Amino acid sequence: MRELKIGGITIPVPIIQGGMGVGISMSRLASAVANQGGVGVISAAGLGMVHRNPAMDYIEANIEGLKTEIRKAKEKTKGIIGVNVMVAMTNFADLVSTSISERADIIFSGAGLPLQLPGFLKPGSTTKLVPIVSSGRAAKLICEKWKSIYDYLPDAFVVEGPKAGGHLGFKKNQIDDSHYSLEELVPQVVKEVSFFEEKYGKEIPVIAAGGIYTGEDIFKIMQKGAKGVQIGTRFVTTKECDASMNFKMSYVNARESDMEIIQSPVGMPGRAVRNDFIDKIKGGLKRPIKCPFHCIKTCDVSSSPYCIITALYNAYKGNMKSGYAFAGSNAYLADKITTVKDIFGELVDDFQSTISRYQSQQPD
User: Fold this and answer.
1) Within 10 A of 214 (CB to CB), how many other CB atoms are there?
2) Of 33, 54, 318, 336, which sits most exposed with the smallest number of CB within 10 A?
C-alpha cells in the first residue's frame, strides 16, 4: 500500500479508522490505529454522556470530554489523530474549535455539508479539514464554497457509500440501488475533485468508506480512484475498541440477516444490528421522553419513540436490552475478538496477495 498524504501530513498506511460515536471510538482505539501507521479517529458524538460531570450540563461535558480524549490519545501515540464532528450536532462550532485548539491532526465532518468549516481555523492552525460526502455534487459544492469564501480547498474527501454503519446520507430507496454504490460514487467524486486539483495545483485525495472489510476490498476500490480507505466496523471487534464486550459480541454473534436499516429519531436511515430493542421499536413501542441533551439539531423529541443518544450510550456500556449497536453491512463477518495490529497485518497481507493475483492474470 502506498502512503497517503493529506494536506502535507504523511500517513504510512492509507487506512483511516472511522469515527464511531457515543463511546465506540475514543482515545484507546484511535491511538492503537495511529500506532499501526493509520489515522485514529475520535468521535465527538456523545462524549458528554461518557464523561458525565454533575457540575456541567451535557454540552459542557461534551467539550471537556473531547479535550480529555484528544489529550489521552496524543499521550499514547506519536501517530496521526483525527476527530469526527457531525455537522448535525447542536454544538458543532464548539467541538470544531476545541479540536483545532487541541491540535487534532485532522477533522472529518459529515452528516450535513460543513460549508463553514474553514472559518474556524486560526492563524497558525495545523489541523487539516476533510469533509465526508455521499455524492460528487456535494464535493463540488464544498470546493466552490470553501474556495470562494475562505480561499481554502479541502485537504481530502471521504466519500461514504450506503454499506456504512450508523447514519447514512441516502434515502431508503437508494441504499440498495447500484447507482449509489461506493464503486459508482468514488469515480464521480474523483472526477469532480480533479477539476479543482488541476485548476489550483492542490492534491485532494479521495478516501472511500462504507462496506470495506478486506485487503481485496481496498485494492478494488483503489482501482476506482480512491487513494485511501476509511474502515469502522472491522475495528469494533478488537481488544482496543472502547466499547463494552457485549457491544463487540453483538457483531460476533450476528448473522447477515441481522444487518438492518432502521429509521433514526434524527430523521435519517441508519444501519444497526437487529435486537430485541429494535424489534420493540418496530412493534410500536412509544416512550414519552423529555430531552435534557439537545445533542442533534434534527432530532424531533415530540415524535421520537426513544432518545437515540441514550440508546447508543446504553449499548456502549453493554446494556443491549435498552439500546442497539450501529454497524456496517459486513459486521456479521466478525467471528472473534482480535487486535488492531492483527487487523492491519491481515489487511496489508490480503492487499498484497490480491495484487499478486491481479498481476498474474494480466497478459504479458
Assistant:
1) 17
2) 54
Q: Is pLDDT of 33 > 90?
A: yes
Residue with cell 475498541: 241
Q: Characterize 182-197 residue by residue with b for buried, 16 or more Cβ atoms within 10 angstroms of its Cβ, and e for exposed.
A: beebbebbbebbeebe
Mean pLDDT confidence for 271-294:
78
Q: How far is CA 277 from the centre of its chain?
A: 24
Calpha distance 247→117 (Å, rounded): 33
Domains of the chain: 4-243+335-354 (3.20.20.70), 246-322 (no CATH)
Q: For 344-360, what is the mean pLDDT?
A: 94
Residues 6+ apart with CB under 8 A from 311: 277, 322, 323, 324
Q: Which three cell numbers stand for residue 356?
A: 499478486
295 φ, ψ (degrees, to nearest 5): -85, -30
What length does the chain have?
A: 364
pLDDT in tens, 214-236: 999 999 999 999 999 999 999 99
> CA geometry: angle at 210 spanning 38 and 146, to 5°?
75
pLDDT at residue 310, as a whole number: 87
pLDDT tens-place string over residues 147-166: 999 999 999 999 999 999 98
Cell triple for 354: 490480491
R_g of the chain, CA atoms, integer Å:
19
Contact 269, 259 (CB under 8 A): no
Between the two ends of the chain, the Cα-to-Cα distance in Å is 23
**pLDDT band per the 50, 70, 90 thresholds, residue 28:** very high
Band of the pLDDT at 283, cuts 50, 70, 90?
A: confident
Pick the residue with more confidence: 173 or 332?
332
pLDDT for 66? 97
